[in-house]
Protein backbone atom coordinates (compact mmCIF):
# COMPACT_ATOMS: atom_id res chain seq x y z
CA UNK A 1 0.00 0.00 0.00
CA UNK A 2 1.19 3.52 -0.87
CA UNK A 3 0.87 6.33 1.67
CA UNK A 4 -0.42 8.65 -1.08
CA UNK A 5 -2.19 7.88 -4.34
CA UNK A 6 -0.65 8.48 -7.75
CA UNK A 7 -2.59 8.85 -11.02
CA UNK A 8 -2.66 5.53 -12.84
CA UNK A 9 -1.15 3.62 -9.90
CA UNK A 10 -3.43 1.83 -7.39
CA UNK A 11 -2.83 2.89 -3.81
CA UNK A 12 -3.43 -0.68 -2.66
CA UNK A 13 -2.83 -3.89 -4.58
CA UNK A 14 -2.63 -7.62 -3.88
CA UNK A 15 -0.93 -10.36 -5.90
CA UNK A 16 -1.74 -13.99 -5.03
CA UNK A 17 0.58 -16.95 -5.71
CA UNK A 18 0.63 -20.71 -5.39
CA UNK A 19 4.33 -21.51 -5.08
CA UNK A 20 5.67 -18.98 -7.59
CA UNK A 21 2.73 -19.15 -10.01
CA UNK A 22 0.69 -15.94 -9.97
CA UNK A 23 -3.00 -16.84 -10.02
CA UNK A 24 -4.97 -13.81 -8.76
CA UNK A 25 -4.96 -10.07 -8.06
CA UNK A 26 -6.93 -7.22 -6.52
CA UNK A 27 -6.41 -3.45 -6.38
CA UNK A 28 -8.06 -0.38 -4.88
CA UNK A 29 -8.93 1.11 -8.28
CA UNK A 30 -11.15 -1.73 -9.49
CA UNK A 31 -12.03 -3.07 -6.01
CA UNK A 32 -12.57 -6.37 -7.78
CA UNK A 33 -10.67 -9.65 -7.30
CA UNK A 34 -9.88 -11.62 -10.44
CA UNK A 35 -8.22 -14.89 -11.39
CA UNK A 36 -5.26 -14.76 -13.76
CA UNK A 37 -5.43 -18.44 -14.77
CA UNK A 38 -8.15 -19.46 -17.20
CA UNK A 39 -8.88 -22.81 -15.55
CA UNK A 40 -9.86 -21.05 -12.30
CA UNK A 41 -12.56 -18.97 -13.97
CA UNK A 42 -15.17 -21.65 -13.23
CA UNK A 43 -14.95 -20.78 -9.51
CA UNK A 44 -17.14 -17.69 -9.88
CA UNK A 45 -19.00 -18.09 -6.56
CA UNK A 46 -15.72 -18.57 -4.73
CA UNK A 47 -14.38 -15.44 -6.42
CA UNK A 48 -17.29 -13.39 -5.06
CA UNK A 49 -16.27 -14.40 -1.55
CA UNK A 50 -12.66 -13.49 -2.24
CA UNK A 51 -13.77 -10.09 -3.45
CA UNK A 52 -15.51 -9.26 -0.16
CA UNK A 53 -12.55 -10.60 1.77
CA UNK A 54 -10.09 -8.47 -0.21
CA UNK A 55 -12.14 -5.32 0.42
CA UNK A 56 -12.09 -5.95 4.19
CA UNK A 57 -8.33 -6.54 4.14
CA UNK A 58 -7.90 -3.27 2.24
CA UNK A 59 -9.62 -1.42 5.10
CA UNK A 60 -7.30 -3.13 7.60
CA UNK A 61 -4.23 -2.18 5.55
CA UNK A 62 -5.33 1.47 5.46
CA UNK A 63 -5.61 1.45 9.26
CA UNK A 64 -2.14 -0.11 9.42
CA UNK A 65 -0.72 2.58 7.15
CA UNK A 66 -2.31 5.37 9.20
CA UNK A 67 -0.91 3.99 12.46
CA UNK A 68 2.61 3.68 11.06
CA UNK A 69 2.54 7.19 9.62
CA UNK A 70 1.15 8.76 12.81
CA UNK A 71 3.32 6.84 15.29
CA UNK A 72 6.54 7.57 13.40
CA UNK A 73 5.73 11.24 12.67
CA UNK A 74 5.98 10.70 8.94
CA UNK A 75 4.39 13.20 6.58
CA UNK A 76 2.12 12.28 3.71
CA UNK A 77 3.90 14.56 1.26
CA UNK A 78 6.59 11.86 0.97
CA UNK A 79 5.46 8.52 -0.39
CA UNK A 80 6.03 5.38 1.64
CA UNK A 81 5.23 1.77 0.81
CA UNK A 82 3.82 -0.72 3.30
CA UNK A 83 4.29 -4.33 2.23
CA UNK A 84 2.58 -7.30 3.88
CA UNK A 85 3.51 -10.85 2.95
CA UNK A 86 1.40 -13.73 4.27
CA UNK A 87 1.65 -17.40 3.36
CA UNK A 88 0.39 -20.83 4.37
CA UNK A 89 2.37 -24.00 3.63
CA UNK A 90 0.50 -27.31 3.44
CA UNK A 91 2.81 -30.29 3.92
CA UNK A 92 2.19 -33.82 2.64
CA UNK A 93 1.54 -35.09 6.17
CA UNK A 94 -1.27 -32.53 6.58
CA UNK A 95 0.60 -30.18 8.90
CA UNK A 96 0.44 -26.45 8.21
CA UNK A 97 3.01 -23.69 8.55
CA UNK A 98 2.05 -20.02 8.44
CA UNK A 99 4.18 -16.97 7.79
CA UNK A 100 3.53 -13.24 7.82
CA UNK A 101 5.64 -10.11 7.92
CA UNK A 102 5.11 -6.37 7.53
CA UNK A 103 7.75 -4.12 5.95
CA UNK A 104 8.15 -0.39 5.32
CA UNK A 105 9.97 0.53 2.11
CA UNK A 106 11.40 -2.97 1.93
CA UNK A 107 12.70 -3.00 5.53
CA UNK A 108 11.17 -5.57 7.86
CA UNK A 109 9.14 -4.16 10.77
CA UNK A 110 7.28 -7.04 12.42
CA UNK A 111 7.10 -10.82 11.98
CA UNK A 112 4.27 -13.16 12.97
CA UNK A 113 5.21 -15.76 15.62
CA UNK A 114 2.96 -18.79 15.16
CA UNK A 115 3.79 -20.42 18.50
CA UNK A 116 3.21 -17.29 20.58
CA UNK A 117 0.39 -16.10 18.30
CA UNK A 118 1.66 -12.55 18.23
CA UNK A 119 3.60 -10.11 16.10
CA UNK A 120 7.22 -9.66 17.13
CA UNK A 121 9.11 -6.41 16.34
CA UNK A 122 12.13 -6.80 14.07
CA UNK A 123 13.57 -3.46 15.24
CA UNK A 124 13.20 -1.27 18.31
CA UNK A 125 11.31 1.29 16.27
CA UNK A 126 8.61 -1.31 15.51
CA UNK A 127 7.71 -2.08 19.15
CA UNK A 128 4.67 0.23 19.11
CA UNK A 129 3.46 -1.31 15.85
CA UNK A 130 3.71 -4.85 17.25
CA UNK A 131 1.81 -3.81 20.38
CA UNK A 132 -0.91 -2.17 18.30
CA UNK A 133 -1.33 -5.22 16.04
CA UNK A 134 -1.50 -7.60 19.02
CA UNK A 135 -3.97 -5.35 20.84
CA UNK A 136 -6.25 -5.34 17.80
CA UNK A 137 -6.25 -9.17 17.83
CA UNK A 138 -4.86 -9.24 14.29
CA UNK A 139 -2.45 -12.04 15.23
CA UNK A 140 -5.20 -14.48 16.25
CA UNK A 141 -7.36 -13.55 13.25
CA UNK A 142 -4.46 -14.05 10.86
CA UNK A 143 -3.55 -17.41 12.43
CA UNK A 144 -7.11 -18.69 12.05
CA UNK A 145 -7.33 -17.43 8.47
CA UNK A 146 -4.02 -18.89 7.31
CA UNK A 147 -4.42 -22.25 9.03
CA UNK A 148 -7.98 -22.74 7.79
CA UNK A 149 -9.19 -20.60 4.88
CA UNK A 150 -5.78 -20.27 3.25
CA UNK A 151 -5.20 -24.04 3.18
CA UNK A 152 -8.79 -24.62 2.02
CA UNK A 153 -8.18 -22.26 -0.89
CA UNK A 154 -4.95 -24.05 -1.70
CA UNK A 155 -6.66 -27.45 -1.73
CA UNK A 156 -9.45 -26.05 -3.92
CA UNK A 157 -7.09 -24.50 -6.50
CA UNK A 158 -4.60 -27.35 -6.91
CA UNK A 159 -6.67 -29.53 -9.31
CA UNK A 160 -7.21 -26.52 -11.59
CA UNK A 161 -3.61 -25.29 -11.70
CA UNK A 162 -1.69 -28.55 -11.36
CA UNK A 163 -0.39 -28.32 -14.93
CA UNK A 164 1.20 -24.97 -14.08
CA UNK A 165 2.94 -26.48 -11.06
CA UNK A 166 4.28 -29.63 -12.75
CA UNK A 167 8.03 -29.68 -13.14
CA UNK A 168 9.23 -28.76 -16.61
CA UNK A 169 12.60 -29.93 -17.90
CA UNK A 170 14.95 -27.13 -19.01
CA UNK A 171 15.98 -26.71 -22.63
CA UNK A 172 19.46 -25.50 -23.49
CA UNK A 173 21.05 -23.51 -26.31
CA UNK A 174 24.78 -22.79 -26.50
CA UNK A 175 26.41 -20.04 -28.54
CA UNK A 176 29.55 -17.92 -28.67
CA UNK A 177 30.55 -14.41 -29.64
CA UNK A 178 33.86 -12.71 -30.41
CA UNK A 179 35.16 -9.42 -29.07
CA UNK A 180 38.48 -7.61 -28.79
CA UNK A 181 39.00 -9.14 -25.34
CA UNK A 182 38.49 -12.71 -26.60
CA UNK A 183 35.70 -15.26 -26.82
CA UNK A 184 32.47 -15.33 -24.81
CA UNK A 185 30.49 -18.53 -24.33
CA UNK A 186 26.75 -18.27 -23.68
CA UNK A 187 24.54 -20.94 -22.11
CA UNK A 188 20.84 -20.10 -22.39
CA UNK A 189 18.57 -22.32 -20.30
CA UNK A 190 14.83 -21.83 -20.77
CA UNK A 191 11.37 -23.38 -20.38
CA UNK A 192 12.04 -24.81 -16.91
CA UNK A 193 9.87 -24.92 -13.78
CA UNK A 194 10.14 -24.46 -10.82
CA UNK A 195 12.34 -21.39 -10.66
CA UNK A 196 15.40 -22.64 -8.78
CA UNK A 197 18.21 -23.75 -11.08
CA UNK A 198 22.01 -23.90 -11.08
CA UNK A 199 23.85 -23.18 -14.33
CA UNK A 200 27.64 -23.11 -14.68
CA UNK A 201 30.40 -23.46 -17.26
CA UNK A 202 33.04 -26.18 -16.76
CA UNK A 203 36.45 -26.34 -18.43
CA UNK A 204 38.07 -29.72 -19.17
CA UNK A 205 35.34 -31.50 -17.21
CA UNK A 206 36.46 -30.30 -13.79
CA UNK A 207 37.26 -26.57 -13.51
CA UNK A 208 34.38 -24.15 -13.02
CA UNK A 209 34.61 -20.88 -14.95
CA UNK A 210 33.11 -18.05 -12.92
CA UNK A 211 31.03 -15.44 -14.70
CA UNK A 212 31.93 -11.79 -14.20
CA UNK A 213 28.27 -10.75 -14.27
CA UNK A 214 25.46 -12.05 -12.07
CA UNK A 215 22.95 -14.03 -14.11
CA UNK A 216 19.27 -13.32 -13.45
CA UNK A 217 16.45 -15.84 -13.62
CA UNK A 218 13.67 -14.24 -15.67
CA UNK A 219 9.99 -15.27 -16.01
CA UNK A 220 8.41 -16.35 -19.30
CA UNK A 221 4.77 -15.58 -20.23
CA UNK A 222 3.86 -19.29 -19.94
CA UNK A 223 4.92 -19.49 -16.29
CA UNK A 224 8.31 -21.07 -16.96
CA UNK A 225 11.70 -19.42 -16.46
CA UNK A 226 14.89 -18.65 -18.36
CA UNK A 227 18.47 -17.72 -17.56
CA UNK A 228 21.64 -17.00 -19.55
CA UNK A 229 25.11 -17.55 -18.12
CA UNK A 230 28.04 -16.09 -20.07
CA UNK A 231 31.78 -16.48 -19.45
CA UNK A 232 34.90 -15.15 -21.12
CA UNK A 233 37.51 -17.71 -22.17
CA UNK A 234 41.02 -17.64 -23.63
CA UNK A 235 41.44 -20.19 -26.44
CA UNK A 236 43.69 -23.10 -25.52
CA UNK A 237 44.58 -26.04 -27.72
CA UNK A 238 42.78 -29.19 -26.59
CA UNK A 239 40.59 -27.41 -24.00
CA UNK A 240 36.94 -28.48 -23.71
CA UNK A 241 33.99 -26.49 -22.39
CA UNK A 242 30.55 -27.63 -21.25
CA UNK A 243 27.48 -26.11 -19.63
CA UNK A 244 26.18 -27.92 -16.54
CA UNK A 245 22.52 -27.53 -15.48
CA UNK A 246 21.11 -28.79 -12.19
CA UNK A 247 17.31 -28.63 -11.78
CA UNK A 248 14.72 -30.49 -9.72
CA UNK A 249 13.11 -31.91 -12.89
CA UNK A 250 16.35 -33.75 -13.74
CA UNK A 251 17.47 -37.01 -12.13
CA UNK A 252 21.08 -36.07 -12.83
CA UNK A 253 22.71 -32.78 -13.84
CA UNK A 254 22.45 -32.08 -17.56
CA UNK A 255 25.84 -31.64 -19.26
CA UNK A 256 25.89 -29.99 -22.69
CA UNK A 257 29.31 -29.78 -24.41
CA UNK A 258 30.27 -26.80 -26.51
CA UNK A 259 31.36 -28.51 -29.73
CA UNK A 260 32.23 -25.59 -32.02
CA UNK A 261 35.96 -24.90 -32.22
CA UNK A 262 37.00 -21.76 -30.38
CA UNK A 263 39.41 -19.83 -32.58
CA UNK A 264 42.20 -17.59 -31.37
CA UNK A 265 40.61 -14.23 -32.02
CA UNK A 266 43.87 -12.28 -31.56
CA UNK A 267 45.64 -14.24 -34.31
CA UNK A 268 42.62 -13.76 -36.56
CA UNK A 269 42.72 -10.00 -36.08
CA UNK A 270 46.49 -9.90 -36.78
CA UNK A 271 46.13 -11.93 -39.97
CA UNK A 272 43.32 -9.70 -41.15
CA UNK A 273 45.36 -6.60 -40.37
CA UNK A 274 48.43 -7.96 -42.19
CA UNK A 275 46.26 -8.93 -45.15
CA UNK A 276 44.84 -5.43 -45.33
CA UNK A 277 48.33 -3.88 -45.20
CA UNK A 278 49.62 -6.19 -47.95
CA UNK A 279 46.57 -5.38 -50.06
CA UNK A 280 47.14 -1.65 -49.65
CA UNK A 281 50.85 -2.05 -50.45
CA UNK A 282 50.03 -3.99 -53.61
CA UNK A 283 47.42 -1.44 -54.62
CA UNK A 284 49.83 1.43 -53.90
CA UNK A 285 52.66 -0.22 -55.81
CA UNK A 286 50.40 -0.83 -58.81
CA UNK A 287 49.16 2.75 -58.68
CA UNK A 288 52.74 4.02 -58.49
CA UNK A 289 53.89 1.88 -61.45
CA UNK A 290 50.87 2.93 -63.48
CA UNK A 291 51.50 6.62 -62.75
CA UNK A 292 55.19 6.13 -63.54
CA UNK A 293 54.43 4.50 -66.87
CA UNK A 294 52.00 7.27 -67.76
CA UNK A 295 54.61 9.84 -66.79
CA UNK A 296 57.25 8.23 -68.97
CA UNK A 297 54.85 7.99 -71.86
CA UNK A 298 53.93 11.66 -71.47
CA UNK A 299 57.59 12.66 -71.41
CA UNK A 300 58.33 10.79 -74.59
CA UNK A 301 55.41 12.43 -76.32
CA UNK A 302 56.54 15.89 -75.24
CA UNK A 303 60.10 15.22 -76.39
CA UNK A 304 58.87 14.10 -79.80
CA UNK A 305 56.81 17.24 -80.10
CA UNK A 306 59.80 19.42 -79.34
CA UNK A 307 61.92 17.64 -81.92
CA UNK A 308 59.26 18.21 -84.54
CA UNK A 309 59.30 21.89 -83.75
UniProtKB/TrEMBL annotation:
InterPro entries according to UniProt: Ig-like_dom, Ig-like_dom_sf, Ig-like_fold, Ig_C1-set, MHC_class-I_related, MHC_I-like_Ag-recog, MHC_I-like_Ag-recog_sf, MHC_I/II-like_Ag-recog
Cell compartments where the protein resides: Cell membrane
Occurrences of domain Ig-like (ranges): 170-255
Protein name, entry field: Major histocompatibility complex, class I-related -like
Gene Ontology CC, one term: plasma membrane
Transmembrane annotation, as ranges: 267-289
Keywords: Cell membrane, Disulfide bond, Glycoprotein, Membrane, Signal, Transmembrane, Transmembrane helix
Chain's gene name: mr1-like
PROSITE patterns: IG_LIKE (PS50835)
Principal location listed in the UniProt entry: membrane
Amino acid sequence: MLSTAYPGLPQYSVIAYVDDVRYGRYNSDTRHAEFLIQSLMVLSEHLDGLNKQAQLIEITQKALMNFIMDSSNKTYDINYVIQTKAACVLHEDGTVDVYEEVALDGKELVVFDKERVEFVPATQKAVLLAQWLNKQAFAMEDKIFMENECTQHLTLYLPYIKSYLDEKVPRVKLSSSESESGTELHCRVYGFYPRDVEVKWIKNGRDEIHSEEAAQILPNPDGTYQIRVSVGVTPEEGATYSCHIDHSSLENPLIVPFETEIKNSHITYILIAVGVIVLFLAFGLGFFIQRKMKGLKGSRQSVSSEEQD
